[in-house]
Design brief:
Elements (H helix, E strand, L loop, with lengths): L8 H5 L10 E13 L3 E7 L7 E6 L16 E10 L7 E12 L15 H6 L8 H23 L3 E2 L5 E2 L11 E2 L26 E3 L4 H11 L1 E9 L12 E10 L3 H22 L1 H15 L12 H10 L3 E4 H9 L2 H4 L16 H12 L3 E7 L15 E9 L3 E8 L4 H10 L8 H8 L5 E7 H9 L20
Parallel strand pairs: 3-5, 6-10, 12-13
Antiparallel strand pairs: 1-2, 1-4, 2-3, 4-5, 7-9, 8-9, 10-11, 11-16, 13-14, 14-15, 15-16
Helix pairs in contact: 3-5, 3-6, 5-7
The structure holds adenosine-5'-triphosphate and manganese (II) ion.
The site of adenosine-5'-triphosphate has 16 residues, from strand 11, strand 15, strand 16 and helix 13.
């Protein structure tokens, strides 16, 4: 076969002027479907560069019919052919094949991804091949664009990206159960004289874990570079098998010096709106496809469980409307007096101020009461981390959580406690060893300044933007309890 440089299918299909019509091009990809009769064959070819497939037409008067016999869904092929305006409906261009090479066969009796609707559960079990479907290739293309948009947003605002450690020696990050990291032989654990595990024999000479958050280290950087953000993997060993929790997920954590909680809310709201608008601008084909998919799914749901807004409409709504800003105390009043609470419809009834909000409460506030994204501030200090700045009332801290429809908490943040004495006081109350955290306390000793930041769970954002219902379907290889295949 004549060697011609490969062209992305997206490049050919998106070329509005049709500059390449009449030229011989080469495309390579995976066969989605094949059909035809004894005169002519049609292959829908996808190379992942875009959602659409390009139609390849085989004219058997000019080409050998037998070469198509081994081409099935999932097979990889390389085709040289002429780009022509399509006569059929549904596509503008197609390729009239001149030559074809079968690169890799896919035995139809064994290949799991057939051209029909597969359940998401089935595709999760075949996560190694699910990239080949329209749904997952759409999700993962959007994922790429969202990563890029986040870096662009912060870069354009003068933030510096910092890499914070993945293996951490502090267990005071306080955000959840941690995974231990060790090279000790679990069959021959060394013990010290007190009968405790002797971590001085371990790789780092101390007990270490996988990080649950890069915040504490990001704070160190912010107190010199002023505006920083991390975007890295975080790990939580919580045994929560929900559609919103992963054991390994990616988190964006900006940290800003000379900023207070108001600045923090503005930054988070701006960022969320920016990346949503970015998706609307750069991922429209994927969003239209995912919206259609969702609408088909909604039809099989009872009326009262259907989402009130179509995906793209919902994204526009969030991008164009101000988020509601209110306090935890106000939220508790609303929840306490709600019909849902009085009729005992919450799994965790709200009885008094101080209760931790569960996802059902967060979703009630967003979806039923305000019908807009909500930023809740000033939470009771007892349900929040030690580093949040104490308000003058002595009971609440300057926390801010952003709650989104269908998800609940998407962002958790706060103004940080920058006063040395107040911070040490909170650490003692919460039994956090000061000695181990001396490096953190040093920033409050030397040139401390007010500062604030937050954590955005990247996969929670992905759930919202794609409309997918399960967090396992927006990360390529999900890690959840009892599940680390692939
Ligand atoms: P939740 O109460 O929903 O479990 P959290 O309060 O433990 O979350 P934070 O410690 O505030 O979460 O983490 C910041 C952000 O990281 C959250 O707002 C959320 O978007 C995301 N996040 C937290 N835990 C997980 C998880 N297990 N899987 C995916 N994303 C998560
Ligand atoms: Mn939180």
């Amino acid at each position: 076969m004549e060697k011609i440089r490969r062209t992305d299918i997206a490049f050919l299909l998106n070329d509005a002027e049709g500059t390449f019509v009449g030229q011989i091009v080469n495309v390579r990809g995976w066969v989605r479907t094949k059909r035809g009769n004894k005169f002519v064959g049609f292959v829908a070819l996808n190379d992942g560069s875009c959602l659409a497939t390009i139609q390849i037409v085989f004219d058997f008067a000019k080409m050998d019919e037998s070469i198509l016999d081994r081409v099935h869904s999932g097979a990889s092929i390389s085709v040289n052919g002429e780009l022509v305006e399509s006569q059929g409906s549904g596509q503008r261009f197609e390729i009239k094949a001149v030559e074809m090479e079968l690169l890799g066969e896919a035995n139809p009796d064994e290949y799991p991804i057939q051209p029909k609707k597969h359940s998401l559960e089935f595709l999760r079990e075949n996560a190694h091949l699910r990239f080949r479907t329209s749904t997952f290739s759409a999700v993962f293309r959007i994922r790429h664009h969202m990563i890029f948009a986040i870096h662009k947003f912060f870069n354009d605002k003068g933030f510096y990206n910092v890499h914070t450690p993945i293996v951490t020696g502090s267990d005071a990050e306080g955000a959840g159960e941690m995974f231990q990291v060790t090279t000790l032989d679990l069959h021959k654990i060394p013990y010290n004289e007190e009968g405790n595990i002797d971590f001085s024999k371990d790789f780092f000479g101390k007990a270490t874990n996988l990080t649950v958050s890069g915040q504490l280290e990001a704070e160190l950087a912010a107190l010199a570079l002023s505006k920083v953000y991390t975007f890295g993997p975080t790990f939580r060993a919580e045994n929560s098998n929900t559609t919103r929790h992963l054991a390994e997920f990616w988190m964006i954590e900006p940290e800003v010096a000379f900023a207070d909680i108001e600045d923090n809310m503005d930054l988070a709201e701006d960022m969320l709106k920016y990346v949503i608008r970015y998706a609307l601008e750069y991922c429209m084909d994927e969003l239209v496809f995912l919206s259609q998919r969702l609408q088909d799914e909604e039809k099989s749901k009872p009326q009262n469980e259907r989402s009130p807004m179509e995906l793209i409409e919902k994204l526009r709504f969030v991008a164009d409307n101000e988020f509601v800003r209110t306090t935890y105390t106000e939220a508790i009043d609303i929840l306490k007096n709600s019909k849902a609470n009085q009729k005992k419809q919450f799994q965790f009834p709200i009885e008094e101020w101080g209760a931790d909000l569960q996802s059902e409460h967060e979703r009630y506030l967003v979806e039923k009461h305000f019908q807009k994204p909500v930023i809740l501030t000033n939470y009771p200090k007892d349900i929040k981390a030690f580093y949040m700045k104490l308000n003058d009332d002595g009971n609440t801290v300057r926390a801010m959580d952003i709650l989104f429809p269908g998800i609940g908490e998407i962002v958790g943040g706060s103004q940080r406690e920058e006063r040395y004495d107040a911070l040490v006081g909170r650490m003692r109350e919460m039994h956090i060893p000061e000695a181990e955290m001396s490096w953190y306390l040093d920033t409050r000793k030397f040139g401390t300044v007010p500062h604030a930041g937050y954590g955005l769970g990247f996969e929670r954002l992905m759930l919202f933007v794609t409309g997918m219902g399960n967090i396992r379907d927006v990360i390529p290889f999900p890690r959840t309890p009892k599940n680390a295949e692939f």
